[in-house]
Amino acid sequence: MAQAAFKTCEICVSSPGHNYCQECDQLFCDGCKISHLRTKMTKNHTFQSGSNINPEVKQYCNEHDENFIYYCRECDAPICKICVIEDHKKHDLCEINTSSAINKAEIESDINIKLNILKTNIMGIEQGTHAYLGDIDGVMHAIRKEGLRLKELIDTEVEYLIRSVKEQQSTQLQILQSMGDAFKTDLNKVEEQYKIFQNAQQITETSALLLKVKEIKSQLAAVEVQQLTGMPTVKYVKSRAQRSEIKKMIGDLTFSETGKREEPLKQRASHRTELVTSKL
Q1: How far apart are alpha carbons 190 and 164 in whole angstroms?
Q2: Interatomic CA distance for residues 192 and 28, integer angstroms
Q3: CA-CA distance, 41 to 91, in Å (whole number)?
Q4: Residues ≥6 apart with Cβ < 8 Å to 179
Q5: pLDDT in tens, 70-96
Q6: Rounded Cα distance, 214 and 221, in Å
């Protein structure tokens, strides 16, 4: 499996692969190389880096100077025929070409699955964003509409109260005007009798004065003066509605998220198992 220097890392397939593992015949980036050397089975593997990589040269087992012809699944490493006898006799082995074919098929399947999932996710985001923006517009329109409805109800109630106050004002002013006119009429009558009484003081004849006084008393008796019992009043008591009551009237908002799609990942695992089984 010849590789050119500085191609993509064969493990993460995302970073430059400028580290070549002689035992595994694979290119590694710096991060994957560190992880590889930390693994118990591969901690003693040797790497070529940078310009020292010679991908055109066939890799051999350094210990036995033999070509790699098998792949040990348990050790995750290519081995030669002598390695089989000495260190991997009871391990799960397969021909290195078969292992490469399986790995390639798995990688291709993994790439296709991930591409499909990512494309589906991107399409879902685009469609979901469009739908979400539609929901936003609809919710704001509904809130404004409900707000206008409540304002209209409040305006209607305000106008009703104002109209009631004005109607009561008109009625009470008419009553007060009528009472005032009656008091003024009686006042004029009393003042008139007072003037007559003052003029009567000039009468010297006793009998004539007596008749005049009786006449004045009769006129005064006809005027029934009443005490003013009370004046009309009006008061307004605020309801002092709380913000929570206003919120209850106008409604609540609910924010939620759609469920995550787990099925593609399950299908991916099932598909990979079927693929490996069929290759073996």
Answers
A1: 39
A2: 127
A3: 13
A4: 228
A5: 888 888 888 888 888 888 888 888 887
A6: 10
The residue type found at 143 is: I
Hey, which of 25-29, 135-139, 259-263 has the most confident mean pLDDT? Answer: 135-139
Q: In what order do the strands lie in the sheet with 77-79?
A: 77-79, 70-72, 93-95
CB atoms under 10 Å from CB of 72, counted, come to 20
Token pair listed for 158? 């305000």
**Residue of 65 and 16 predicted with greater confidence:** 16
Question: Can you list the alpha helix ranges (DSSP code H) found in the chain?
Answer: 30-38, 81-86, 96-200, 206-222, 243-250, 263-279
AA letter at 153? L
**Nearest-5° angle of CA 77, CA 5, CA 36?**
35
How many CB atoms are located within 10 Å of the residue 197 CB?
Answer: 15
Amino acid at 78: P
DSSP-based three-state secondary structure for 47: strand
Ramachandran quadrant class, 251 (left: phi over 0; alpha: psi -120 to 50; beta: rest):
left
Q: Which residue, chain included where needed, has tokens 């030669």?
A: 80
Contact 15, 9 (CB under 8 A): yes
Query: How many whole angstroms separate alpha carbon 50 and alpha carbon 6?
Result: 8
- Global confidence as pTM: 0.49
pLDDT digits (tens, 9 = 90+) for 190-234: 999 999 999 988 988 989 889 989 999 999 999 988 888 889 999
